[in-house]
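thought: fold this chain, then report.
action: predict
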Amino acid sequence: MFRPDSLFIRFLTKVCDLIILNILFMLMCVTVVFSGTAVTALYTMTFRMIQKKDGPLVKGYFRALRENFIPSVPAAICLFVDVTLLAILRKALFAETLLFSPNIFVFLSIAAAFLTAVLSYIFPLLARYENTFRQHLGNAGRLAVVNLPVTVLLTAVNLLPVLLVLFFPQLLGVVAAFWMLIGFSAGAYVNTFYLNRIFNPKDKGDAA
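observation:
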């Protein structure tokens, strides 16, 4: 059970790696400027974990931060818009007075879900491939449509903390603590498992 190559030890090692990645990610997201490249670097490292590519975790994350800073700027802007939309929707949902019409609320909800779905592919694409943002955006849109079941899963995973707080507000403290400890990196790891199969159809990946 406690052998270095045992399933239990491998699981604990993976959890520790994800906690370290999550802490690094949270530190980089303190400033909005680094939010985009922080997400891209997170996916860079989870792809390496899925593909079992050995290397220093912390040094690899900071290297990915430097390499992806400029390419991630447009995606960071889209991420900021998405988070702002979600914040507006949450405020409107719990407001004592009607902030805008139901039709506008539905439209903004669809826009936020669509933007989240596209971003669920854009950041992994930035982590894996060198391309212009326009090409990444087009590829993300096509992948989202062609792989609709996976798109729904990725979007649900990325919106899970928002949905949990929305429907179970009493769990706010638990949700916040979990996502600050490991939630973001664990979600990226789950997403990467399916994204790796899309990007490399012959490589089924291994989450063990």
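thought: worth noting. The chain has a mean pLDDT of 90.
final: tokens above.
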